[in-house]
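Lay summary. Proteins are chains of building blocks that fold into shapes, and those shapes determine what they do. In this project we predict the shape from the chain. Here is one chain we studied, written as its sequence of building blocks.
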Amino acid sequence: MSEESINLVHHCVRKTAHAVEYAILGFLIWRVVQSAPALASHRPARHFRLALLLAALYAVTDETHQIFVPGRDAAVRDVLLDTCSAGLGLAVTWCALRLRKSK
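And here is the predicted shape, written in a compact code that computers can read:
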């Protein structure tokens, strides 16, 4: 296997792991938001939107701190990937809840 192939696999594994991390983060933020007493009267859709917003804000801070790490740089595309990954985690959560309700 060439070094180029190894680097490509390494890149794909890292990006996939990062996406899974943010999907889990989206779910965990949703759990906190939906169980917050101050938000109990809000509709569930609002909980999902707030969770996505908070995950996106975290993605921005995660990329911003990389400006200060030698050898790293901040990228808007990474914020978008992280936010989409959190959205995917929230979408899976929403689908699972709908499925559970229908049974």
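What the prediction tells us: The chain has a mean pLDDT of 92.
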